[in-house]
Design brief:
Radius of gyration: 17 Å
Organism: Rhodopseudomonas palustris
Family: Belongs to the short-chain dehydrogenases/reductases (SDR) family.
Number of helices: 10
Number of strands: 7
Distance between the termini: 34 Å
Shape: globular
CATH superfamily: NAD(P)-binding Rossmann-like Domain
InterPro entries: NAD(P)-bd_dom_sf, Sc_DH/Rdtase_CS, SDR, SDR_fam
Protein name: PsbB
Strand content: 5-15%
Pfam families: adh_short_C2
């Protein structure tokens, strides 16, 4: 086991399963002190228990809808500081959205798609003062390559994720002299459990999204997590305000 994040407090939102759970595992393997959050309590507990069973320090967990400001106040930032004295790294993985043709959306599905990504704004707003006070911080937002390549049926989703991308650049410039970097990791289609399930039920739809990737495969969750880990490291101190695509070449430059 390496200890690249030993002594650092890492908050990962949306950490119960999929990409978030793999990101949490990568940090745990490098001896980070973890605070994990998710709306699904049973899944989050299972994820934390699995890390402990693998011999890692058991993460603190918080269950709640982080899109709601009153939940946000009770969540990761306050808990991390109360228990561990600080926050060093925030990974805004919670998000997602409803993918469907734009005119098939309803006011509710549009609002849900935006609200799911509102979590990044609240989480960051609460974490930045703590990072600024200590003169150090790393914020990594999980965005989407579809913002750049205009995938079918992603217009509403891109409206939400595009905001996450834009927030990152603004924050990066505003807090560049405070020792805080802010970057975005933008995956294309990723081989998550949800994608695996969809491959069995709507294979034509998954093929449509894979076909835009020159490598002709989804990304791996570990491939996403490894880039998050680099951007969260001390070595990445001169990388800020960037959208790093992990996309098999589905967009270039």
């Amino acid at each position: 086991m390496t200890d690249s994040f030993s002594g650092q407090v890492v908050v990962v939102t949306g950490a119960a399963s999929g990409i978030g759970a793999v990101i949490a595992r990568h940090f745990a393997e490098q001896d980070a002190t973890l605070v994990l959050s998710e709306i699904e309590g049973a899944q989050l507990t299972a994820s934390a228990d699995a890390l402990a069973a693998a011999g890692h320090r058991k993460p603190m967990i918080h269950v709640g809808d982080l899109a709601k400001e009153e939940r946000r106040r009770q969540a990761d930032s306050a808990n991390a500081v109360e228990l561990h004295g600080s926050i060093d790294i925030l990974v805004n993985n919670a998000g997602g959205g409803i993918i469907k043709p734009f005119l098939d959306h309803t006011p509710d599905t549009l609002r849900t798609t935006v609200d799911r990504n509102w979590t990044a704004l609240w989480s960051t707003w609460h974490a930045v003062p703590i990072m600024k006070a200590k003169g150090y911080g790393r914020i990594v937002n999980i965005g989407a390559d579809s913002v750049r390549n205009g995938l079918w049926d992603h217009a509403a989703y891109n409206a939400a994720k595009g905001g996450v991308h834009a927030m990152g650049t603004g924050l990066a410039r505003e807090f560049a002299t405070s020792g805080i970097t802010v970057n975005v990791v933008a995956p294309c289609i990723v081989n998550t459990p949800q994608v695996q399930q969809a491959s069995a039920t709507v294979p034509h739809l998954i093929k449509k999204f894979v076909d835009v990737v020159p490598g002709q495969r989804p990304g791996g969750m570990d491939e996403i997590a490894s880039v998050v880990g680099y951007l969260a490291s001390k070595e990445a101190s001169f990388v800020t305000g960037q959208v790093i695509s992990v996309n098999g070449g589905s967009t270039m430059l």
